[in-house]
Amino acid sequence: MKIVVIGASAGGSRALETLLSCLPADFSVPILLVKHHDSGSGTDMVKWLHNRTTLDVHLAEDKEHIQAGSIIVAPPSYHLLLETDGSVSLSIDEPVMHARPSLDVLFESAALAFGDEVLCLVLTGASRDGAEGAEAIRKAGGKVYVQDPETAEVPVMPRAALGKSGAGFVLGLSDLTKKLLEFANE
């Protein structure tokens, strides 16, 4: 089973809108998303995304199985992990790089669970979260693409991912959308 994991932080809302609004209703690969939240329930972001994509968008529920055509969003204050049976789990383990949910936690679990069937996108953000996890996906044979830091609202996160040896390819948002579509059609 193929899986897409996406991570974003500061400036991520605009990047996600550009990236996800172009996906067709029949997009066949499940997407798991971690975006660093300020606070709140996360439902505002889900509603906001729901109005910008034809895909089903919802907050992750512990032990739910991933489905094609859905975007599963990590709830605030919970790490989102992908399990080998195609389900997700939520954790209240310690924050990673001051973040819970953490991109690294999701990415590392995806690398372990699905290896070379993972497509990882690292978008704009103001921390180094995601760099280690993206490297784990690359080492497991998955594909890693990083938003061009020059186009990122906040370039720290994409630069950190690129700082890892061979961590991925640099692309603009429209090209990242093309890679998502190609991955789904491979």
UniProtKB/TrEMBL annotation:
Occurrences of domain CheB-type methylesterase (ranges): 1-186
InterPro entries to which the protein is assigned, alphabetical: CheB_C, Sig_transdc_resp-reg_Me-estase
Reaction it catalyzes: [protein]-L-glutamate 5-O-methyl ester + H2O = L-glutamyl-[protein] + methanol + H(+)
Pfam families assigned: CheB_methylest (PF01339)
Keywords for this protein: Chemotaxis, Hydrolase
Enzyme Commission (EC) number: 3.1.1.61
CDD domains per the UniProt record, alphabetical: CheB
Top-level lineage group: Bacteria
SUPFAM superfamilies linked to this entry: Methylesterase CheB, C-terminal domain (SSF52738)
Active site positions, chain numbering: 9, 36, 129
Protein's recorded name: protein-glutamate methylesterase
Annotated source species: Parendozoicomonas callyspongiae
